[in-house]
Known about the structure:
Layout: H1 2-10, H2 15-46, H3 59-62
Amino acid sequence: MRQAKIYAAQHDTTVNALVRDLLQAKISAEARAKAATQRFLHLAEQGPHSTVDPGTIHREELYER
């Protein structure tokens, strides 16, 4: 706690403000990750699907230049 107070004083803020900012950042990051996951799942379900049968792709064709 002492180090947190020193850090806060050095950055002209309070420990409470530091904790609040850290929590907001964490919650925002998790919310963005959740939204991105939902968008990805929606695309996976509704998005364009490949019409190529994977069995018709030959390994050599993948590495042709």
